[in-house]
Structure formats: structure tokens, C-alpha cells
Design brief:
The complex is a heterotrimer of chains A (176), B (176) and C (350). Chain B is of the alpha+beta class and 176 residues long. Chain B is built from four helices and five strands. In chain C, helix 2 (136-147) packs across helix 4 (236-282) and helix 5 (304-325) runs antiparallel to helix 6. Chain C is flat.
């Protein structure tokens, strides 16, 4: 038996086989745990990917329906100054009972606010743009312009026509 | 002694691995159930959206001047019964149509129109439509609302038959 | 020498190994099965969404999501596919194909009510007519049915070994021309997705002649599958169009669906008519005048003669709705309601 100076209190026999076996078993447990954890993480990620994909098409369909209906419903609404789309026309061609441009710029945000509150979508941000398609006129922009350039936006489009003149109206949404 | 210690260690090791395997099985099936749950929830959302689209395009409720344009006729909404609509669109849902009028909608209006605007609002706010209250009402409830329903809300136009005007509204569909 | 304990360890190790491998293999198999049936269901759901969109908007669309399906069949209103089946909510006439499908809607309008359905036809769908009886009446029948047939298919005729087809407009022009020599039963080799409609006084064609449908010009009767086929009664061009594209099963489904929608819509409309005419009197409203704009704030009060006229018009409309509930020709009854409703529209009441 060999002794080493300064190796502690007790005598350590040289080449203890029991210690090596203990280390081996510990490693085996550690490997088993690591493999199982890895497999579980992969399954979890796969499940999340599958379930998030499943809900996406419904969400997209709902958002498109919401945007389309919001746009056409707001434009069709009767106001004290007439149908809103007619008031919008008045902003380009004159006529009507009220100051068309100002009226549209105040009424549209009021209606959008009502809609978003009533539908529980106060997390939606919006932007409306009306552009003449076949005549000269200013582009009317109401709301938050940054929405138009947002990556995750969705939108709806309609054309308001009268006497051959066409005005393209687009309504953009994004999540705040 | 040495042999007994080795056997004990071995059984402890087997026990540990078996425990890990059981936990892994439980977690995997747990994730599976989560995935199935997500699929079920998505199917429900899809059905609710379907019913909303069915109501919006239903010939029984739409104004004939806008047969496919998400314009609900208020007199048809008042006359329709739950049994009628369930037989057309399937069972197990509830719908509410609410006309939106808000005092702030009168803010942008010129002073001489404001009094009339506010008076109109007060008259019809929140009243549920029946044969007796029609047309001085602004809420239609179709079928019973139940706990645990999921809800979808979309903007809609409501044609007021009695005075020939178009109001802004919200359709909310709930599905069991 | 190997000890008993070593053998024990080996045996335990092998059992654990088998358990782990079996578990993972079974799990992988479960997921791959779930994944493929999930994909098929998604495709069928996407088709239903497209059909719903076409039905609601009236705008045509196309769909290519059935590629890779091993089996696809349609028994209206159920689509049967590889791993299941689905009942479509929207009235649809589908010709199953794993290629591109064109979807279009068609409506039969009656003013207060319209019945719509969706066609889903594969690319290259052809409908060929064999005018065994080439008379003005036969051509008129075909022309009326064509109005309710989709634009995406090709139309033409087949006589003996000759089969020619083109766009719908071209075929309508051909039908507007004078009748020619009667056609011979079609025996040309025809591509997939072709339906042959023979128009002939029944029994029409010689036994064994090729035709998907044999239509009698005058009797509202057709034979499905050829001169030896099962009889199907039809009333009017809409039912003929459905029979031409989908056969008797499709016709039965559409008739049942329409009957349900008409019944419910008529019931709602009767209650609504009573409500509106009562309220108009109660509120002193008389909307039955010529109004200058589509959405007048309120049409003015007119004399009592005008009000009585409005009540009579509403009463006549209500009576026409009553007629729908009686057994008989539903199309004739619907046309009656359309006329009565047209009177209300012309009076400015609707």
C-alpha cells in the first residue's frame, strides 16, 4: 500500500474500483435525463408550432372580414350631413349641407372609436386613406400613418364611384 | 457485502430510469392533450366565424337593396325568431346586433344640428327591439346567451326601415 | 464466468430498451398519422371557406388544395375524403377533382328572397348537348338552363363522333340560330369531366346510347345515366341546370335546401310585413310614394287614399307568401311573390 502525504486524514487505497463504478452510474443517469429532456423540448416545440398554425387562418379571415365590414359600414352610414360617402364626395366636388372635409375628418375617428370599443378591439390601430383614381384631388388621410407601413398590417379596400369619378378608399389596421 | 451494495445500487438506478420514463410518458400525453385542445378551440372559433358570415349574407335578414352587402334590415331582425335562424344556420349560437350611437358622434356637428343629434341618441339608446318597442330601439337579441360561449364581433350596417336611414352597428355572435 | 446477477442486468436492460424503442416508434406513428389527416382536414376546411366566400360575395374564385388526395367524392352536401367526411354548410355543386377547381355562385332572384348556390367545377369541365330533337323549344330549354350554369365550363354539342365545345357566349349565339339537322347519339371519345346531355322526346335515344342525362323537352322529365336510367322530375331552368351538372342527388339536395330557406324566409317576411304595415299606420308614415333618393329621411305624408293603397299592396304580398305554404309548384308560387313584391317596390314601399 502506498501513502500520499497531505492527501487528507484517512488512508486511501490505491486504485479503488468501487469509485469508478459509482462515477459510471452517475454519468448514465445524467445522460438518460439529458436525452429525455431534449426529446420533451422537441415535442413541446412541435406541439406549439402545430397549434399556432391551426389558429392562424381563422384569425386572418376574421381580421379581413372585420376590416372590410368596418370600411363599408362606416362609409354607408347616414349622418346629419348625409351618407358619409356622399359627404366624402362633397369634399372633392363641393355641395352638401356641411363643411365636408372637416366633417369627415371628425366623424370617421368618432365612428372608428365606437366600433373598436364595441367590438373589444381597443388594441387595433387604424389608418384611412382616400385617393382619387381618375381625377385630380388631394389624398385624404385620417388616423395613424405608421399603420400603413407596418409589417403585420391588414387592410380593406373599396371604390366609391359617382358620375364616372372613382375614389379609392383603403382602411389599414395593425395591433398596437 | 460488495455484491449486495452493487445490487442495491443497480436497483436504485433502474428505479430512477423507470421514474424518468413514467414522467416522460405523462408529459408527452399532456402535450398531446394540449394540442387536441387547441384544435378544438380553433374549430369552435371557425364555426363562430362561419355563423357570423352566414348571418351577414343571409337572404332572410339582409336588406334586398344590398343582398350580399352586410346590411341587416331592422324590421327583419325584429321579426326573425331563434327557431327560424337555427333551422337555417345550425344550432347552439346566440347573436346580438347593436346600433352604435355615441354622444361624441355629435361633437363635430354644427351647433344648429347638435340638439337634434343628441335627442335622437337619447331616444333609442340600449332599448331591446320587440314588436312593441320597434322602431324606437337599437338592440336585437337572437337566441339565448349562455355561459362559456366564445364571441366574435364584426361591424355591420343596420337599415332602419321606418325612416329609410342606414346606421352603424356591431354584430356579436356567441357559440357554445 | 458470467454471474446470475450479470444475466439479470442484461435481461432488465433489454426490457427497458424494448419499452423505450416501442414507445417512441408508436408515438412517431401516431403523430405522422395525425399530421396527414390534419392536413387533409385543413384542405377541406379551406375549400369550405372559399365556397362560403364565393357564396357571400358572389365573386368567383379558384381552389387547388385537393392535390395529393387519394380519394375524393361528393354526395351532396357531404365531401368524402381520405380520412373522413365533411358536410358543407353552403349549398354547393361540386365535381370532385384533385386538380384546380373554379368556384362560381348563381342565384335565383325573387326581389324579397334569393336562393343562391355555388358551383365548384374542375378545369376543363365540358357540358355537351345532343339535340336529338333540334327544335326551337329544345334550344329554348337549353338556353334557359345555360343562364343558371357557370361561366367557367365549356359548352358545345356532340353528335355521333363529333364533339365541339367553346365558351358559353359562343354556345348561346349558336343556340340563338335556326335549328339544324337532328343530332345523332354521341359516341365520340370524350375527355374526363365531360357531361353529355341529350335533349329528346322520351324514350329519346336507342338503348345503350351514351348520355349522362336525357331530357324531355316538354314534360319536365329527365332520365339519369342514359335512356335506361332512373327518372327525375324537374320544374324550371334552375332545376334543370342542377340536374345537368350534378344529377338527381344534387337536385334532391338543392330542392330540399331551397324549400327550407323559402319556408323560413317566408315566415320571417310575413311577420315583418305585418309589423311594418302596422307601424306605418301607427307612426303616420307613408313611405309608399316616389322618393327622390334611395335613402329619404322620411317620405312625406300623403292623403288617405295613398295609405290604403299601401295597405292593399302589403296585403297582396302577404297573400302571395301564404301561397308558398301550399303544396304545388314552388317556382310558380315564388314568381307570384316576386310580382307582388315588385308592386310594393314600384309604389316606393320597399
Amino acid at each position: 500500500m502506498k501513502f500520499r502525504l497531505g492527501s487528507g486524514c484517512g488512508m486511501r487505497p490505491h486504485g479503488n474500483p468501487g469509485g469508478a463504478a459509482s462515477k459510471g452510474q452517475t454519468s448514465m443517469i445524467a445522460i438518460a435525463i439529458a436525452v429525455v429532456m431534449l426529446v420533451l423540448i422537441m415535442i413541446f416545440m412541435l406541439s406549439s408550432a402545430l397549434s399556432s398554425q391551426a389558429g392562424q387562418s381563422t384569425r386572418s379571415e376574421y381580421r379581413n372580414l372585420f376590416a372590410h365590414n368596418a370600411l363599408i359600414s362606416v362609409l354607408r352610414t347616414d349622418t346629419e350631413c348625409g351618407i358619409l360617402s356622399d359627404v366624402l364626395k362633397g369634399g372633392y366636388f363641393g355641395g352638401g349641407r356641411c363643411d365636408s372635409r372637416k366633417f369627415v375628418e371628425s366623424r370617421i375617428p368618432a365612428y372608428m372609436g365606437l366600433l373598436l370599443n364595441a367590438t373589444g378591439h381597443t388594441d387595433y390601430e387604424w389608418f384611412l386613406e382616400a385617393s382619387p383614381m381618375n381625377f385630380r384631388g388631394e389624398v385624404l388621410a385620417i388616423g395613424s400613418a405608421a399603420v400603413k407601413e407596418a409589417a403585420e398590417r391588414w387592410d380593406a379596400r373599396t371604390i366609391v364611384t359617382w358620375e364616372g369619378y372613382q375614389l379609392e378608399v383603403k382602411l389599414y389596421f395593425k395591433i398596437k | 457485502m460488495k455484491g449486495q451494495a452493487a445490487i442495491t445500487e443497480y436497483f436504485v438506478l433502474i428505479f430512477l430510469i423507470a421514474m424518468i420514463a413514467v414522467i416522460a410518458v405523462i408529459m408527452v400525453f399532456g402535450f398531446q392533450m394540449l394540442g387536441t385542445g387547441a384544435e378544438k378551440a380553433n374549430a369552435r372559433e371557425r364555426n363562430a366565424l362561419f355563423i357570423a358570415e352566414g348571418i351577414l349574407s343571409s337572404g332572410a335578414l339582409n336588406s334586398p337593396q344590398f343582398p350580399k352587402g352586410s346590411v341587416l334590415d331592422d324590421s327583419r331582425l325584429t321579426a326573425a325568431s331563434c327557431a327560424d335562424l337555427w333551422s337555417l344556420l345550425g344550432e347552439g349560437w346566440h347573436a346580438e346586433v347593436r346600433v352604435l350611437r355615441d354622444r361624441s358622434a355629435c361633437d363635430g356637428v354644427q351647433a344648429w344640428l347638435k340638439t337634434k343629434c343628441l335627442a335622437d341618441l337619447r331616444k333609442a339608446e340600449g332599448a331591446v327591439c320587440t314588436d312593441q318597442s320597434y322602431p324606437s330601439c337599437s338592440v336585437w337579441r337572437i337566441c339565448e346567451k349562455k355561459a362559456g360561449m366564445i364571441f366574435f364581433s364584426v361591424p355591420v350596417s343596420v337599415y332602419r326601415k321606418m325612416n329609410g336611414t342606414m346606421d352603424l352597428g356591431v354584430l356579436t355572435v356567441g357559440l357554445e | 464466468m458470467i454471474s446470475a446477477f450479470d444475466i439479470f442486468r442484461i435481461v432488465i436492460g433489454v426490457i427497458v430498451f424494448i419499452f423505450v424503442i416501442t414507445f417512441f416508434l408508436r408515438f412517431a406513428d401516431m403523430y405522422s398519422g395525425t399530421a396527414s389527416s390534419g392536413k387533409a382536414m385543413e384542405a377541406v376546411n379551406a375549400f369550405e371557406d372559399t365556397a362560403q366566400e364565393v357564396y357571400a360575395s358572389g365573386n368567383p374564385s379558384s381552389f387547388s388544395g385537393f392535390q395529393g388526395f387519394r380519394t375524393l367524392a361528393y354526395d351532396p352536401p357531404k365531401i368524402m375524403y381520405d380520412s373522413g367526411q365533411k358536410t358543407l354548410a353552403v349549398p354547393t355543386l361540386l365535381v370532385p377533382s384533385t386538380g384546380k377547381l373554379y368556384l362560381e355562385s348563381r342565384c335565383s332572384e325573387f326581389g324579397w328572397f334569393s336562393f343562391c348556390w355555388v358551383y365548384a367545377f374542375p378545369e376543363g369541365m365540358r357540358i355537351l348537348f345532343t339535340f336529338v330533337d333540334d327544335s326551337p323549344a329544345s334550344r329554348q330549354l337549353a338556353r334557359q338552363a345555360l343562364y343558371y350554369l357557370p361561366d367557367s365550363a365549356q359548352y358545345g354539342f356532340c353528335s355521333s363522333g363529333e364533339a365541339r365545345a367553346g365558351g358559353k357566349a359562343d354556345f348561346i349565339s349558336f343556340l340563338s340560330g335556326p335549328p339544324g339537322a337532328p343530332h345523332q347519339p354521341c359516341n365520340a371519345t370524350l375527355p374526363q369531366y365531360t357531361r353529355v346531355i341529350a335533349i329528346a322526346p322520351l324514350p329519346g335515344l336507342p338503348p345503350g346510347s351514351a348520355a349522362d342525362l336525357v331530357v324531355d323537352t316538354g314534360a319536365g322529365l329527365a332520365l339519369e345515366g342514359g335512356p335506361d336510367g332512373a327518372a327525375a322530375n324537374f320544374t324550371g331552368p334552375v332545376e334543370l341546370a342542377v340536374l345537368v351538372t350534378g344529377g338527381k342527388k344534387a337536385l334532391d339536395y338543392i330542392k330540399q335546401r331551397m324549400s327550407k330557406e323559402v319556408t323560413v324566409s317566408a315566415r320571417i317576411m310575413m311577420d315583418r310585413t305585418r309589423l311594418v304595415s302596422q307601424k306605418m299606420v301607427a307612426l303616420n308614415r307613408q313611405p309608399c310614394v316616389e322618393c327622390a333618393t334611395p335613402f329619404p329621411e322620411a317620405c312625406g305624408w300623403t292623403d288617405s287614399g295613398g295609405r290604403q293603397h299601401a295597405s292593399a299592396a302589403y296585403e297582396a304580398f302577404g297573400d302571395s307568401l301564404d301561397a308558398l305554404a301550399r303544396p304545388g309548384d314552388i317556382w310558380r308560387a315564388l314568381n307570384g311573390t316576386a310580382q307582388a313584391y315588385g308592386l310594393l317596390e314600384s309604389e316606393g314601399c320597399e
